[in-house]
Structure formats: C-alpha cells, structure tokens
C-alpha cells in the first residue's frame, strides 16, 4: 500500500533528525557542527568549490555559510582562492590540516555507525531515497534554490 505524503514526510524527517543527532554526538567531541562536516566533506574531493555549491551541500543560507567558512579559515582547515576559470568567483579548498581533520571525522563517524553500515550500503534503501530526492528536485518546487533564493532576494533589496 502506498504511503501518504504526510507519512513519508514524517518518516524521512524522523530518520534525518535521528541521524543528525547521532552524527552530532560524535562531532561534538571535535567541536565540529554537522554543517561544517558537510563543508569539509564536499571539499575533500580536492576540486575546490564555490560558495553556492557549499551552501547547497551544507543546507545553509549564504550568509550563514560565509560565517562558517570564515570560521573554518580561522581554524586553518579551509582556504579560499580565486577561480582560475572565472576570476569573479572564489573557490574554497581544504588545507592539509583540513584534510586530516576531515579524515579523522569520517573515521570516527563511520566507527560510531558500525552496526548501521550495512543498512547504509543497502541499495534497497539508498536507491529509492536518491530517486525520491531527484524527483522532488526536478519538480522545481524551490528545493534546489533553498540556499540561493535568500541570496537573490537580498541582492534585489540592495543589501
């Protein structure tokens, strides 16, 4: 029997909040927020990412992301560079210390989730969740612009 949208939303929200609580309990030992962990995670690919991509990945509005990245720069975990392909943009990268911190955090979170690793690797769970996220995003309900919308409206108001 198909679930109603409100049931699905409840289950997804409950799972997300419990998962964040679990991860945050590990990250608290390292004075790191889930949002900072998400930023470090995206930057761990070594490619460098612009602020819009980081905001989307961390689920943060642009001003909050800027403050977070400033803190990560102050901690010598992240550095900023001008994008060589578009000198108007700034790319963030992990410092060597940031890469070490990310590796430590990933190792600790994975070990804490030990008994759940099999469930996380199960395509019967991950596949449908990924397809649901993609389907919702493609419906253009504003989900893809959660973080960038505030930036656009702030610019429009002259802030």
UniProtKB/TrEMBL annotation:
Q: Ranges for the HTH marR-type domain?
A: 5-138
The keyword Magnesium is annotated on this UniProt entry: no
Q: Which domain of life is it from?
A: Bacteria
A single MF term (Gene Ontology): DNA binding
Keyword annotations for this protein, in alphabetical order, are: DNA-binding, Transcription, Transcription regulation
GO BP: response to stress
* SUPFAM superfamilies in the cross-refs: Winged helix' DNA-binding domain
* DNA-binding found in the keyword field: yes
Recorded protein name is: DNA-binding MarR family transcriptional regulator
């Amino acid at each position: 029997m198909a679930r109603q949208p409100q049931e699905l939303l409840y289950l997804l929200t409950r799972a997300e909040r419990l998962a964040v609580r679990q991860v945050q309990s590990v990250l608290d030992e390292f004075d790191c927020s889930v949002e900072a962990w998400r930023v470090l995670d995206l930057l761990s690919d070594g490619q460098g990412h612009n602020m819009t991509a980081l905001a989307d990945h961390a689920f943060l509005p642009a001003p909050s992301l800027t403050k977070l990245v400033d803190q990560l720069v102050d901690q010598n975990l992240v550095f900023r560079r001008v994008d060589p392909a578009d000198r108007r943009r700034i790319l963030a990268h992990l410092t060597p210390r940031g890469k070490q911190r990310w590796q430590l955090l990933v190792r600790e979170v994975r070990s804490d989730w030990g008994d759940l690793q099999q469930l996380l690797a199960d395509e019967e769970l991950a596949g449908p969740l990924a397809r649901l996220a993609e389907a919702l995003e493609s419906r253009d309900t504003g989900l893809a612009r959660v973080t960038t919308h505030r930036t656009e409206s702030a610019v429009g108001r002259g802030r």
